[in-house]
C-alpha cells in the first residue's frame, strides 16, 4: 500500500527565508550540519534532515538532544540546550514561529479544499436557478444550494452540504461536507467544518395546558469575517434577536451555541462547551473544554473559564474562573487543595 501525502509542500525554503518570515535570529550549526533547506515539519522526537521543529520547555530537553532536524525554533534562553548539529532559530514565541513557518511550507492545510479536487459546480450538485454564485465558487458533488442563496468568489461548498434559501456566504469561505447552513449570514474567509449546523431552531418553548408550546425562532445567525467553526458544532438562530459570532472567533468541535447568544471578537471556545441562550460574551474570552455557561449571563472582555466549569453568574472582565459552580480560579484551586488534603488524612474528621 502506498503512503498518501495529504498535504503537499509548496516549495523548499532556505533557513534564511524561514528566519526572515518569522523574525528569527539564526544560530549557526556546527560544520557537520545538514544543508540548510527546509522541506517538512516534525515534532522534536521525529525530526530528520530537512525538517524544522520547535522547542518551548526544558521538560523536552531529552527529545531535543536526540533530534535530527535541520533547524529548530527556540527561545534565546534555551539556546545552550541546542545540539551543535541543529541550526537554531531564536524567537520569543517558538510555537507562533512554527505556525508561521508551517503555513508557508504547507499553505493548503490552512483551509479545507474541494474534497473532489474539482473546480466550478459539480454536475451532481443541486443549485436552485434563483441562487447566485460569483465566478470562482466550487460546489462539490451532491451539495444543495437553495433559492435566493448568494455565495462569494473563492468559496468551496463540500459534498452533501446544504445551503438554505436566502443564505449569504462571503468570499473565500469553506463549507465542509454535510454541513448545513440556514437562516444565516456568513462573512469572508469563514471556515465551517464537516457536520456543523448553523441556523436551526433554538431551544424555545413555553408551558401550555397540554405540554410545551413551541416558540417561533425568528432571528438569524450572523458569522463575521475570519471565524472558524469546528466539526459537528451547532449554532442556533436567534428567537427575538440574532445569534452573533464575532470576527476572528474560533469555535472547536462539538460546541453548542444557543439562541440569541452574542459572542465577541477573537474568542476561543474549546470542544464540548455549551453556551445557553441569550448570553453575552465579550471580546478575547477563552472558554475551556466542556465548560457550561448558564443562560442570560455576561462574560466580560478577556475573561478565561477553566475546563469543565459551570458558570451560573456573570463573570467580570479579565477574571479567571473555574469549578462548578464557577468562582475565582485561585479560590477554586485552594478549595480543591483543601479537599484533597482532607481526603488523605488517616483519620478524617467525622464531621466532614
Write a brief structural summary.
This protein has 352 residues and is of the alpha/beta class. The chain contains four helices and 39 strands.
Notes on the structure:
The protein contains 4 helices and 39 strands. The protein has 352 residues and is α/β, with parallel strands linked by helices. It folds into 2 domains: 13-110, 3-Layer(aba) Sandwich (Udp-n-acetylmuramoylalanyl-d-glutamate--2,6- Diaminopimelate Ligase, Chain: A, domain 1); 126-332, UDP N-Acetylglucosamine Acyltransferase, domain 1. The strands form 6 sheets. The chain has an 11-stranded mixed β-sheet, covered by helices on one side. The chain has a 10-stranded parallel β-sheet with strand order 8-11-14-17-20-25-28-31-34-37, with no helix packed on it. The termini are far apart. The mean pLDDT is 94.
Write the layout of secondary structure elements.
Elements (H helix, E strand, L loop, with lengths): L12 E2 H8 L2 E3 L9 E2 L1 E2 L9 E4 L6 H6 L4 E4 L12 E4 L3 H12 L20 E2 L4 E2 L4 E2 L4 E2 L4 E2 L4 E2 L4 E2 L4 E2 L4 E2 L4 E2 L2 E3 L4 E2 L4 E2 L6 E4 L2 E4 L6 E3 L4 E2 L4 E2 L7 E3 L4 E2 L4 E2 L4 E2 L4 E2 L4 E2 L4 E2 L4 E2 L4 E2 L4 E2 L4 E2 L4 E2 L8 E3 L4 E2 H15 L9
Amino acid at each position: 500500500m502506498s503512503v498518501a501525502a495529504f498535504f503537499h509542500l509548496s516549495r523548499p525554503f532556505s533557513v534564511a527565508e524561514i528566519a526572515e518570515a518569522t523574525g528569527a535570529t539564526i544560530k549557526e550549526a556546527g560544520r557537520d550540519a545538514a544543508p540548510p533547506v527546509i522541506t517538512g515539519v516534525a515534532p522534536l522526537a521525529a525530526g530528520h534532515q530537512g525538517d524544522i521543529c520547535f522547542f518551548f520547555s526544558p521538560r523536552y530537553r531529552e527529545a531535543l538532544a536526540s533530534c535530527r532536524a535541520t533547524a529548530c525554533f527556540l527561545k534565546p534562553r534555551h539556546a545552550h540546550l541546542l545540539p551543535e548539529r541543529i541550526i537554531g532559530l531564536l524567537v520569543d514565541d517558538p510555537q507562533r514561529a512554527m505556525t508561521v513557518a508551517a503555513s508557508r511550507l504547507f499553505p493548503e492545510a490552512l483551509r479545507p479544499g474541494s474534497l473532489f479536487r474539482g473546480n466550478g459546480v459539480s454536475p451532481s450538485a443541486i443549485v436552485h436557478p434563483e441562487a447566485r454564485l460569483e465566478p470562482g465558487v466550487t460546489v462539490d458533488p451532491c451539495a444543495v444550494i437553495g433559492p435566493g442563496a448568494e455565495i462569494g468568489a473563492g468559496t468551496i461548498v463540500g459534498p452533501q452540504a446544504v445551503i438554505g434559501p436566502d443564505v449569504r456566504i462571503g468570499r473565500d469561505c469553506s463549507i465542509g461536507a454535510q454541513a448545513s447552513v440556514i437562516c444565516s449570514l456568513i462573512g469572508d474567509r469563514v471556515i465551517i467544518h464537516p457536520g456543523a449546523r448553523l441556523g436551526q431552531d433554538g431551544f424555545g418553548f413555553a408551558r401550555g395546558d397540554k405540554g410545551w408550546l413551541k416558540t417561533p425562532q425568528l432571528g438569524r445567525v450572523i458569522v463575521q469575517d475570519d471565524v472558524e467553526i469546528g466539526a459537528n458544532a451547532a449554532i442556533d438562530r436567534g428567537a427575538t434577536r440574532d445569534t452573533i459570532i464575532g470576527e476572528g472567533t474560533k469555535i472547536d468541535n462539538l460546541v453548542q451555541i444557543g439562541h440569541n447568544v452574542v459572542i465577541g471578537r477573537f474568542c476561543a471556545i474549546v470542544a464540548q462547551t455549551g453556551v445557553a441562550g441569550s448570553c453575552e460574551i465579550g471580546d478575547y474570552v477563552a472558554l475551556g473544554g466542556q465548560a457550561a455557561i448558564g443562560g442570560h449571563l455576561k462574560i466580560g472582555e478577556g475573561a478565561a473559564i477553566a475546563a469543565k466549569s459551570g458558570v451560573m453568574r456573570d463573570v467580570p472582565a479579565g477574571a479567571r474562573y473555574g469549578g462548578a459552580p464557577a468562582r475565582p480560579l485561585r479560590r477554586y484551586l485552594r478549595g480543591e487543595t483543601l479537599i484533597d488534603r482532607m481526603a488523605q488524612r488517616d483519620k478524617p474528621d467525622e464531621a466532614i
